[in-house]
């Protein structure tokens, strides 16, 4: 006697109108993204995608400057102008290639500095951080072929503390003092006991340079939040605290009385870490179409947090205070492919604020925060 | 017996002149959480009334202040109203008055997490 299986009755689920609307929007966003990727691929190197050399992704800015020998040892020639403000794409592209080479453990035979004619403080900080990471990963030191460097670049990197940070032999030349003085690079790491003391030391060195007290609590406020963010958000997938690093530098021009403080980390970036908040769940359809610069602006202006907790997300607003507290000040935040800039000018009791955003093709490889204030 | 004399805590002298970060030990040794759990909350429990002096440090980030003071309400230790009676924030440096205002803002905005 056979026993028949019980008849399965599947319930009829009526899908709402909103469901179909959401599906339609998702398809539209996907088609748009595919079009953007195809356009980018065509721009970079035809249907085969971006050119590759020894496994590295190159683009129009780096193709001519990166070569590999038979043993796939790389030679990377850095470009003439390294400046995020005036030559962002070329500068960021070269750093991206260097970073990719470091993390995929390629052999770097030569990092050629001979062509560099100009390097900004922030570009020098990012360069130092990349070379620092290379030294730590390979447990060796990238040698500096000093005779090939331009004299100005040698002087600049020497004054910025490049050689001390990387434990390289410093050039013995004594250069005359120029208008801009630099405070040597500092490296810190998340959870370190001395993070606060490093920030305090920077303030003391700045005041020694400037010759008078500055609005130290605003500077500490901004730096402490930048340092806290590194530990909490930037390196989410990195378990080893020793790799959760940040770098810091400052410069002062006695003629223009312009003080610049720069902070950099090689973490996941604000645009990538921020969308994992509760707000993202609610606004995700709109958020998906937002650029990196818009996300940085949202994080700074509104105060969101990747933790999704109400009590958090106030840190980026702290960064603004140091720039706001002076007669004129500027805060620039570069994170991944976006940049958001806020400028302030204080005319007595009125504080005027302007802002600007920009998006780039190449990522800066983390988050770079620059404060420029007139003392 | 709980002492009713007001206990004074000077953050710069009794804790750190560079308080930084929110959670201990992830953010370092001188965080808001550690200040709250090791100094502030025990003092409030023992003495009932505490005066906290915020002068003399390098400054404060919002993470430290929110966790140290707002955390008293979020952890369910006190309500904002109770803290109005039990807590005084002392500030003689005019540059630091904004931090005193922020502390009370975080206390009033904090909501208890159940």
Overall geometric form of chain B: globular
Low-confidence stretches of chain B: none
Strand content of chain B: 5-15%
Query: Helix- and strand-based class of chain B?
Result: mainly alpha
Largest interface: which pair?
A-B, 30 and 33 residues
- Low-confidence blocks of residues of chain A: none
Radius of gyration of chain B: 13 Å
| Overall pLDDT score of chain A | 83
Rounded to the nearest angstrom, the distance between the terminal CA atoms of chain A is 97 Å
Task: Output mean pLDDT of chain B.
Answer: 91
Helix and strand pattern of chain A: HEEEEEHEEHHHEHHEEHHHHEEEE
List how many beta strands of chain B DSSP finds: 3
Please tally the β strands of chain A and state the result. Answer: 14
The main sheet of chain B comes to: 3 strands, parallel
Summary?
The complex is a heterodimer of chains A (375) and B (114). Chain A is 39% helix and 22% strand.
Describe what this molecule looks like in 3D.
The complex is a heterodimer of chains A (about 375) and B (about 110). Chain A is globular, with a radius of gyration of 24 Å. Chain A is an alpha+beta fold. Chain A contains 11 helices and 14 strands. In chain A, β3 and β4 form a beta hairpin. In chain A, α2 packs parallel to α3, α6 packs antiparallel against α7 and α7 runs antiparallel to α11. The N and C termini of chain A lie far apart (about 95 Å). Helices cover about 40% and strands about 20% of the residues of chain A. Chain A has a 7-stranded antiparallel β-sheet with strand order 8-9-10-14-11-12-13, with helices on both faces. In chain A, strands 3-4-6 form a 3-stranded mixed β-sheet, with helices on one face. Chain B is mainly α. Chain B is built from 5 helices and 3 strands. Chain B has a 3-stranded parallel β-sheet. In chain B, α2 packs across α3 and α3 packs parallel to α5. Chain B is globular, with a radius of gyration of 13 Å. Classes of the chains: A alpha+beta (about 375), B mainly alpha (about 110).
